[in-house]
Amino acid sequence: MIVIPGPSSLGLGWRIAERLGVEPTPVEHRVFPDGESYIKLTKPVEGEKVVIVQTTAPNPDTRLMQLLLMAKTAKDFGAKDVIAVVPYLAYARQDKRFTELEALSLDVIFGMLDCAGVTDLVTVNIHNEASTRGVEEKHNLRFHNISAVPLLAEYLKKEGFDGAYSLSPDKGAIYIAEAASKVLGGGYNYFEKTRDRKTGEITMAVKDLNIQGRKAVVFDDMISSGGTMAKAVEALTQQGAERVASACTHVLYMPGAEEKIRKAGADPIIATNTIETPFSRVTVAGIIADKLRQLE
Ligand code: R5P
Question: How far apart are the CA of 295 and the centre of ligand 1, in A?
Answer without folding.
Answer: 31
